[in-house]
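Lecture notes, unit on protein representations.

Consider one protein chain, 364 amino acids long.
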Amino acid sequence: MSSTDAAAAGTPPPPWRKGFWFNEKMPCTVIIVDGEKMDFNNMIGLDFPDIEGSVTMVGKFGQFGAAKKEILEATGQTEANFELNYVGQKRYGVVDGSGTRITYLGFNNKVDTLKWLSPEDVEKLRETRDNLETPSCPHITPKPDAPGKIIWLSGPPGAGKSTTAKMLAKKCGYVYYEADCTMGMMNPFLKLNADDEFESMLEARPLKGWSREDAEIVLRTGKEYQTYLAGQAGWQEKLPNHDADAILRPLLNIMCREVARQKKRLGGDFAVAHLVMSRKSRDLCREVCPNVVFVVLNMTDGCRRVRLKGRHNSDGQLPDNLSKLFQEFEPAGGEEENAYNVEVSEDMTKEVVLEKVLEITAKI
C-alpha cells in the first residue's frame, strides 16, 4: 500500500520516509519506497525512472516479536517492528525513530541496512558511478600495445568458470572479466582477493552511460531468464523464447561488445567467465570478438552431484530449473574451431582444472 492509498483508507502510513533508499552492500541497487511498497531497482533507474525491471517487496510496520540476536546487537532494540515480504518470504528487523534507517536480517541471513537518501545523496550516488567505457580497475596494469588472447570460460552452473578465470588472473597475469556483471550493469573487473565470486559481485560498482535501449534489453533478459529458471506453471506463455539460449542471446551481443571494448582499452590476455549455451551463441561471440577461444568446462555426473550438494544443500539431484539448463547446454563440437572441452570430475581440484586449461592455452 502506498502512502496515498494509506491516507485514503484512513490508516496511518508507515513511519519510514518516502523516496530513494540504499543498501551499501548492494551498490548497484536503489530502493524506491512509497508507503509499504518497496521497489528494488537497478541503479539505472536513476537515469530512467520509468524503466521497467524492478523487484517489488512489501514492508510492514508492527509488532513482530523478539528481534534476532544479530539485529539486537546492531540496533540495541529487543523487539522487531519491521517485516519485509518478498513473494511470501518474510524477514524481520527494526525501523529507527527517525524513519531513515531500517535494519533487518537479509535473505542471506546477514544483517542488511537500508538508509534513506536525501536529494543531495541521490545526486552524489548518480555521479559517483563508474563509467561504462572506462570502469575502474586499479588492480590491472593496462597493456594496450599487447594484443593478447581472449579465453572465454563457459560451462554449466557450478563448473568453475569464475574460479578458473580468477586463478588465471592471479597466477598467470590475465585480466579477469566477470561477464555475468553485464546482467547487473556493473563493473566486470571484480576484486581478486574475494573468496566468493557472488559476494564480490554484490560489491561491484554500478556503471553509468548505458543507452536506454541497452538497459531495456538487459533488464528484460534478466526478467525472462528468472521466469525461465522459476519454471512455474504457464511460464512458456510468458516468454517469446522458450529456451535459455534464445533468451540470453540479445544480452550476449551487448556483453561481447563490452568485452571487445575493454580488450582494446586494456590489452593483454583476458579470461572471461560466462555461460554461453550453444555453438550458435559462441559463433555470435566470434562475430564481435573474432579471436576469442572458448574453453568449455563440462561436469561429470559425479561432479555435478558433489557441487550441487555444496551449493544447494541438496541430495545431488538437479532442481528443475537447473535441470533445464543442463539439458540444453551444448559442449564444444569436435569440428568447432577455437573451442575446447575440459571434463571436470568430482576428484579434480581447482588447481588441476587450471592445469588442464593452461595445457590448452599453451597450444594457442
